[in-house]
Amino acid sequence: MPLSRCQETAGPGGPVNDTPAGVGISGHGNTRAGTGRRPACHTPAVDLDLSGEHTLLRDTVRSYMEGEVAPVVDAHEREHRFPEAVVRSLGEMGWLGIPVPEAWGGAGMDTLAYAIAIEEIGRVWGSLGLIVAAHTSLGCGPILLAGTDEQKREFLVPLASGQVLGGYGLTEPGAGSDAGGIKTTARPADDAEGGWILDGGKRFITNAGQAGTYTVAARTGETPSGAPAISAFIVPAATPGFSVGRLEDKLGLHASATGELRFDGARIPAGNLLGELGGGFRTFLTILDGGRISIAALALGLAQAALDAAVPYVREREQFGRPIGTFQAVAFRIADMATEIEAARALVWRAAWLKDQGRDYGLAAAQAKLFASEVAARATDAALLVHGGYGYVDDYPVGRFLRDAKLTQIGEGTSEIQRLVIARRILGLRVS
Ligand SMILES: Cc1cc2nc3c(=O)[nH]c(=O)nc-3n(C[C@H](O)[C@H](O)[C@H](O)COP(=O)(O)OP(=O)(O)OC[C@H]3O[C@@H](n4cnc5c(N)ncnc54)[C@H](O)[C@@H]3O)c2cc1C
Questions:
Q1: Structure-derived torsion over alpha carbons of residues 19, 20, 23, 25, reported in degrees to the nearest 10
Q2: Nearest by Cα to 91 from 107, 73, 104, 70
Q3: I want to staple 383 with a disulfide (CB 3.0 to 4.6 A). Which of 32, 176, 205, 310 is the partner?
């Protein structure tokens, strides 16, 4: 059976064979408009063009990030200052709830749109990319997935419409990759006021101290088999007994806040249990599957930023009387970066597309996250090296890209954890 019966037709532009260096790089991504060759049937076997809506979103986010946001990045990063005003503007533009349905305060777009936006934000500012990804995937995500209509009205609408920032507390000092090992507890209050009492603490929480609403995992006893039962709770920042502890000094992503959450007899209403009692771990694992797509998109943005910085530099910088980009060793670094970035983008878009189709995307999301974050680490390293000594000082942003990219190999599951997820799925064995 033929793969496709469509006849290829040459469009007005004809086939595009040889994109000049720089054009395909900074103008990455295909669009429906202006493509040279179109299949002459209605349903092509594979369509790798972005829709008009996705293209418009990408161009709008790119133009806003380059025009309005880029000028304030360095000062915020240098001063380790959270970009409150920028985050507020993103909320006003509807970019803090891109994949959330309009009925719940979001933009009602899909996961692909969200991934494209995170790539474009991350390409200019890694810290902002992480703030938005954590807010959307981890702050809004659990309530969208497991919340009742009442919880969505009360908590999701303010989050997705950008009035309140969200955070997500799973990791603890003794429970990172082994998230099931958390020690924070929640018990029903035994007095007339009722509700849940939380005790314990979380570490490394993105948007700590900035978020108004956190979703938090806590132990609520044991399952019949003796394993810890983990449930999810919604904790407003104003909850008595809740506080934000130390904020971390990090290698990179200096404008994004990462810190401790403390629960000292924090009392929340009974209605803040999110999903079923004991069902929180499943909810969080599902949320991490989706969140990996956004961290992969952030990695992609950082890798693209590295390439965008390296290309003009190696064209202009001269040594031995010629541009260093004419030395094959340098040019081949660029060739490898460009190729790996395109491969990473294909994986990210595929994982997003599978999710949007309502299909199983867990394996694809882990593959996208693993590959894109490793590409980001390699590409940002290569960009720094082709800048020589200038890459090691603050004259160029490539050092920031390298520092920021490291997080994408760690957050929402390290590369080893992604390999575990992938290997288990491929082998069907309990690999550990
Ligand atoms: C900037 C930043 C933001 C973060 N934001 C959040 C957030 O918003 N919410 C949240 O809940 N968490 C957050 N995290 C936590 C993050 O998810 C964890 O750091 C991550 O899951 C790794 O856990 P860990 O740091 O305890 O490392 P560990 O789990 O101690 O891992 C250490 C090393 O051991 C390896 N390892 C562990 N287990 C295995 C295994 N079974 N097989 C092979 N190798 C293994 C790891 O791959 C890693 O190399 C954030 C972290 C950072 C740095």
A1: 80
A2: 107
A3: 310
Residue labelled with tokens 């806040």: 257
For residue 412, indicate whether it is catalytic: yes
Task: Give the position, in ligand 1's atom list, of the atom nearest the Cα of 412.
Answer: 17
Return all residues near 353 (Cβ < 8 A) that are at least 6 apart: 111, 112
Cα 102 to ligand 1 centre (Å): 33
Positive or negative, the Cα torsion across 228, 231, 237, 240?
Answer: negative
Query: Ligand 1 centre and the CA of 176: distance in Å?
Result: 5
Cβ atoms of 219 and 230 within 8 Å: the answer is yes
Tokens 């309140």 appear where? 164
Nearest to 212 by CA among 161, 262, 155: 155
Please state the separation of Cα 310 from the chain's center in Å: 24
State the catalytic residue, choosing from 53, 79, 412, 416. 412
Packed helices 362-386 and 280-316: angle between N→C axes, nearest 10 degrees:
30
Atom of ligand 1 nearest to the CA of 134: 8
pLDDT at 17: 38
Given ligand 1 and candidates 135, 170, 177, which is best to mutate, with the most ligand atoms within 8 Å of its CB?
177
Q: What tens digit of pLDDT does each residue of 259-295 get? A: 999 999 999 999 999 999 999 999 999 999 999 999 9
Q: Give the residues surrounding ligand 1 with Cβ less than 6 Å away.
A: 134, 138, 168-171, 176-177, 204-206, 250, 253, 258, 407, 410-414, 416-417, 420, 432
Instruction: Read off the pLDDT of each residue in 176-190 and give the average, rounded to a whole number.
Output: 96
Within 13 A of 324's CA, how many CA atoms are on the CB side? 18
Closest CA to ligand 1's atom 44: 416
Distance CA 429, CA 179 (A): 20
Rounded CA separation 94/84 (Å): 16
Q: Between β-strands 8-10 and 37-39, what pairing exists: parallel, antiparallel or unpaired?
A: antiparallel
Q: What percent of the chain has pLDDT over 70?
A: 90
Please tell me what DSSP assigns to residue 188. Answer: E
Question: What distance in Å separates the CA atoms of residue 391 and residue 117, rounded to the nearest whole number?
Answer: 27
195-219 in b/e form (b: 16+ CB < 10 A) is: bbbbbbbbbbbbbbbbbbbbbbbbb
Read off the amino acid at residue 279. Answer: G
Q: Which of 204, 233, 256 to mutate to test ligand 1, by most ligand atoms within 8 A of the CB atom?
A: 204
DSSP 344: H
